[in-house]
Amino acid sequence: MPAPSKSGPALFLGIELATDQLRASIVDESLELVGVECVDFDSELSEYQTHGGIFTTPGEAYTTPVEMWIKGLDALLAKLHGNYDLTKIRAIGGAAQHALVWWKSTTVPSLSSLDPHLPFHQHFPALSFSLPNTPTAQDTSSHTHALAIENLLGGADRMAQRVGMCASASMVAAQLLRVRESWPAEVWGRTGRVQVASAFIGSLITGKWMGMGEAEACATGMWVHSGNPNSATGQGYWDEDILEIVAGSREDGRRVRGWMGDVDVSGGSRRAGNVSRYLVERYGFDPETIVTPFTSDYLSTYLSVSPSPNDAVLSFGPMDNLLAPAQIYTPTRFYNLFPHPAQDAGDKKRYIVVLSSRNGDVPRALVRDLYTKSWSAFDRLVAIVPPGGSIGLDDKLFSFWHLQGDSYPYSRVKGIYRFETGIKVNEFRDLRANPRCLLESQLLSFRIKWARMISTGVLGAKKTGLSSTPTPAGGGGVTGAGGRTSSVLSSLGLPFDAYDPAPLPARMITTGAAANFPSIANLVGDIFNAPVFVPTTQVDSAQISPHRNAPAQGFPSRAALGGAYVARWVWGREWNVGGLNIFEDEIKRLLGKRWVATGNVPLRTSIGAGLTVAPVSSANRSGANSGTSTPFGRSSLGATVFVEEDEDELEMHENGARAYNLFVDSSGGRARTATATTTDPASTLAASTSFNTTPDIGNGGGGASSTPTPLAPVTPLPTSDGELQLGLAKVADSDYDAFLSYASIVPEYYRLENILIKAIV
Question: Among candidates 303, 351, 302, 358, which has minimal Cα distance to 331?
């Protein structure tokens, strides 16, 4: 194919439908950022009265109006049209939150013949949808339906072997079953098509029905992947037995199969279509602009950081996700396994393994509300409290915060549990231990999930933590890579060697608001014994609004950048302008080429923000809707908030911790992100604010005029050129001594975790 003949630089657009915003990022051929736009649902579409883009109703239901998305897309495209020359856009990619769109059977429109004089929302009003307010990924109202499907399939193991995942509240199959049982006539009986949100947005962009990618089909709990041994033909297909469970009969199961439409099994390496005539005539896009397959937001975020084979990507948010590249299709109940969303169909299949926790931002915001009055105080307490919540070696504190039903092994665990000296207690004697113990619990849980995952061999050549090397004479059992025999590990109650760092990731790449906290970044490095990196776009954005999952004004979202990168990759392959088969290799090639051409200038991190990494001032704190990605803010439990200790008490506690060398590096060999001091005066927090948003850290309580010290976010440590050219900044280093200290408490954590799973307490 000849080179592009259009004059002017080629630009690439990425669109993200997030929970709280619609976002767009534009990059050039070298992946330099050239444009950013967003539409905030709460502030710009306030007529819907959402909080963080969602509604909450009894029964742990979190829903969002589909019509709001459509109005938001109108507004986003209008902003892009007003601020950029859209004729230069050569390709469009995108991503969306995990949600469904339920089209009515009587009003399924002709997408190819829309009147360009009317906005999208006039073509598709709320009456177009049988379920106008659709559940979001945070919704857990389908949890019991997911467990019912899992039981009918023979349990978590059999379900995972069949469709690559076990029961999850956000599983599409569970949401379908809930709708059929809850609204058989008014919703189920009036539905003509069901789309995942990414395919829905892609369909509006292309002007034709876009099928979901295979990665998202695998997230439905109804799709048998082509790599599955159960697939006799080597092709993916919808599981008719699960469709029958969901629909109630074999015939209705075929009807649901028709609703879901075809699945794009091309691997995401070729165009899904061209931009629609509607967008060409209304907004001025070039009719030859290609549109690439859209995918899930968390997978697009993963693509934006181009991880290497030994990396892990830890994405903090309402749901925390730990993702890693996988080489082998080995489905088990321990994790979800998805096909890589940007790979050549002719190449050897590659996968992404996902470890998830539904209890991420929710418990963190609640603990902040209960035990501190600001995120800065929260960060401070985490930094000054010793590992395990106490100085002693045998009296460590443990807590488990399961406020929402989760997937295996926590599918039947719910509540708040605390343990001192192995005994369940209602509250810790030292209340200040709660923030650190919560974070340690969240990260140790991922540490154990990682060990279980490694043991399956899904990551390919990685070590499993145990080898078959025989022990010396007189020793019993098999020797682990860390020097402990299998008999010793058995006595500890562990199936893996917690002291062996070899199976752990070589590098932790973190995203999300929690990664902006210096104390959390250091904890990640300690528990995983790996350096911690954050995208430079997020580091700079954090200087303005450190406690938000949403980027600050003028900064791109990672999922939108991932969509733009995929658009550049597919376009390059079609026009023979680069386009290496391996997506990550091509992104690294482009960024490396740009690095050399610019004389080692780091990637631009924002448009119009005029900010590089600098200390945050009180004038730069974000507004009242800060943290709107967090679906749980100051709760009705606010009346029981504990007053934060005075500054002299904090200093006394900090000095005691320093005396025991528990968090300050005395060797000079470890770089740590500094945690700012707090000068917050003691006061009582306001008892109530929005239930679904994280309030601004500057909002004090009780009508007092005092202003809490804003959180001082992470700032870059010395970072190698190899990472800088990829847009990554090191924010914490590994510390082997700290890693060993956490390894020593893993056995007790593992024991207590199993007690909860088995419902012994």
Answer: 351
